[in-house]
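Researcher: For the annotation table, I need C-alpha cells for GNAT family N-acetyltransferase. Please keep the output clean. Sequence:
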Amino acid sequence: MQLTYHVNAPVTAEEVVDVFRSSGIKRPIDQVDRIERMLVASQLLISARDHDKLVGIARSLTDFCYCCYLSDLAVSAEYQKAGVGKSLIDKTREEIGDECSLILLSAPDAMEYYPKIGFHQAHHGFYIPRKQ
C-alpha cells in the first residue's frame, strides 16, 4: 500500500461512485450526474490514492474562515481501519485552518468513530431532509 493524499486534485464521478459503493456510505450512486454536480460544487476535496486507485475522499463545503461542512467522508472497504479516514480529516483541518470549525452529520453506524478522532458531539442542531 502506497497512499498519497491530494488537495482539489481531479477525480471522476465514476471513481467516487466506486469508493462510495465500497465504503457503504449512503449516497445516490445510481445517479452519476448528481455525483458529478456534488463534486463540482465542493470548495474542498481531499482524495486518497493507492498508486492510481482512488481509495478515499473527504468532500467539504466551506468559507475557509468560519465553518466547514464535511459532507462526505468515504474510504473503500479494504482500506478502512488503516487510518485513511483520520488522515483525510487531518488534511481537511490543515486546509481550513484553526479559525474554522469542522462540522459533519454522522451516519448512525459511525457515531462512535468521530469522538475517537477528536470530534465533539453536538446535542443541538436542526436540518430539513432532502425530498429526493
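Researcher: And a one-line annotation?
Model: The first helix runs from residue 13 to 23.
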